[in-house]
Amino acid sequence: MSNITQNIQSYKVIYPQVYSYILPNRPQTEGSQKIGYTEKENADDRILQQVKTAAFSEKYTKLWTAPAFFDGSEQSFTDKAFHRFLEKKGVERKLELGKEWFYFNGEPLKSKDLFDLFRKEKFSALQNDKGKVEYTLRFEQDEAVKKALGYFEQTEKGEFLWNAKPRFGKTLASYDLAKRLKANKVLIVTNRPAIANSWFDDFEMFVDGYAFISETSSLKHRATLTREQHIAMIPIHPLITFLSLQDLKGSKYFGGNYDKLRWVADLEWDLLIIDEAHEGVDTGRTDAAFDVIKRKHTLHLSGTPFKQLANDKFPKEAIYNWTYLDEQKIKQKEIEEDETGEHTDLPDLKLFTYRISQMITEEVNEGIEIDNETRDYAFDLNEFFRAKDKKFVHEDDVREFLKNLTTNTKYPFSTPELREELKHTFWYVGNRVDSVKALEKLLKEDPVFKDYKVIVAAGDGLSFEEEENDFKGNESSFQKVKKAIAENHKTITLSCGQLTTGVTIKEWTAVLMLTDIKTPSVYMQAAFRAQNPYKEFRNGELVFKKSAYLFDFAPTRVLEIYDQFANGLNPKAVKGEITEKDREENIKELLNFFPVISEDVNGEMIELDANKVLTFPNALAAAEIVNARFMTNLLFNDSLKGVFNFPKEVEEILNKMPEEKNKRAQKTSSTLDLDDARALNNNKSKEINTNTEIILGEKIFKTNTERVVDNLLELNNEQIYADELIEKVSVAAEPLIAKFKEVYKATQAETNEVTKQIQEKVKQIAEEYNNAEIKDSEALKQKLIDTIELDFVTNKVTQKEDEKVEKVQKTKEEEISDRLRSFTRTIPMFIMANASRDEITIDNFDTEIDDQDFLDLTSITKEEFHKLRDGFDYEEDGKRKTFQGVFNKYRFNASIAEFRLKKDQLANYFTAEEDIFELIPIQKTNQIFTPKK
Predict the structure, then answer these.
(1) Which pLDDT does position 926 carry in this prediction?
(2) What is the pTM of this model?
(3) Looking at the DSSP assignment, which residues form a beta bridge with residue 274?
């Protein structure tokens, strides 16, 4: 067994030092000294790298060396910060000698005195007269600002995209752009209000001359201003306003229902900044809200803008790209040239991917039982971690998985040394909160993981899309994680959506992907959660995070995403102008900085080259498909998720086919009836509106809620009693909860959970009111009404209707898959009957089969199969449409090749240990071949 995982090493010991030396034999340096930085234990080793090479050697005199830590602190710094301090003190930088040379004019020891002063004064020594730290943008930040500035100067109402990976430093660069634009009115809108602190942190530290306006709860304890406080200033400062997208869309001036933020709609903004632009902004309602904002320029910020690029939203001159690959290439250059730089503290990423499906080979071959019915098992992480009532359906398999993580040498937690390298990790689990709760229970029972503090970063009963958008929950989970890490030696954070975007937990060293995310943008945002700079003291030594790890347990899926990561943000690839050679070259370059170590078909860990990244997913899938005797959903593409849009002709073909159940083909008992499914989907919005109105009724709860607030504030205008508010608002909401229970036949447990969620939100609103400097009773009433009307009724009704449609969609997908498997189970027969030595593919396997034999065996004609295979154009409701076909051709062809290989390997009928006929399902016609047993 390979021991390659023993190379996991997250941290490296460093010795931060600043040193100074002179070159006595070089006259042009007289009066100057070089002041550099090293993390080597011996500073002379670093100096010798500069003055001694194979070609020459130069005498040097070291003046001093000192630890680069601030006085009384464990915080380190580099020479770059000290250089800025020297220039501030009037010391001339001699750029003609090099960027680290400074002129001390016959006072060589003055440099050490200034160094000691800098250590004592810390970063406050770099502040200007207004208390702001003077900054210098990194190369890529400056390039991004210049390119956007140039585009805005040439384009009226221009929209520019910064496609920059996490930790690019978008906030500071955005502020710098605003200053260079001389923008007086800047509006920042984000889909993630929890990141408000990042915006305000950089504002407080670096930005002067502006006022920061925000009333988001994330900043309730920070020194922000309200709109009223800002206009009362004398003189009025230029303004930076931070808003959440939810707040914006809630305003009646931006398409919502509430009378707020009129001033935002009235102003003409110099710059609109849309943060995390890949999230949420492509919906009609959001676009309509942004259309209302009057502005001169728009800056979009995103690390994974796959949608925008695919939709040609931005011309290439309106995009600045900065990827992980760009970052790591410049980091490597800095290390080679100068040992340290602006990027050298950014860890690299390493991907390890494992075949968890090998643990459940029996289920793959025999199917699994769901609702007392045996169904095909196409391995799926969400299925593996599926839970019901906070208990895993496949609990024994999950226990075995956890055991493997800590005992099998190829897995990441298998030794005490590896556990020290991975002390704090983030686990992205399944697709529902129940899975997270079930895993928490098993981890606490596991003999190794019971020693970890397990943090559940999840709400209650939400899907991972809802979890990702639960902004209050994200903020609360962030604080829980920070507290747990501060108090515990080892932690595991479990999530099914929270904390995957816009947050930084610097102590995390690895992400475990235990979910079948297939969206590249969501996957990559989560994957980068551990790739951030971090230093800490261990046993008296300073260590820094040199590598972050991504452990994925679905190689087929992750390698497809890796391909998209290397090529998907390339505008040429998006437009289909990239060649296979280009794709491979892009992957090859990325592998230099983001290596992939994968478990192969034999269970060995091997490092993949570019060719294997492209071919491995299909090779791994092919092995599983052949073992499943071609009765697996792995052979189908994502067209099945569009069942509501299937053409009538495809539905008619599918209705001719039997269905595969319990590994046998049997006559179907009913037709697909996709029209009923389409009608349900088309009526979803109408049902949401109708049931929302039924539950809200005459909205008496509004009057009752306002009366509750008025009565409580009569007693005390400055404080509101939270417990009493919770009790009385709950009473006002009771009729709506009862009506919700009646409409949706909700269980008592579900209605109890709804009541609990309302009460928690009311408590939070009360705390915000009591902590606010300005007491706004009308805003208090509106927030309470929103909690009942929007957070409860609208959201719950939408969730219930979505669940109805999703249930029907999944049922129809399964019915279609059952029929298609009745076809694919015939493929081994066709291959056995094909005597050709040429390559057999999905495009030619049927050419040697008689038309009638094909029909007898599959129940459809060749022409009908070709329609399912190749797709076709058709007209519907007066519109020309295209059906893409249902088969994954690459996997199909790889599986045929894998089966033929098996056939050749087992050609000796009498001596082979295995039997090729065991891989051929029993067909509905008389079998041509006779198996051994």
Answers:
(1) 46
(2) 0.73
(3) 189, 300
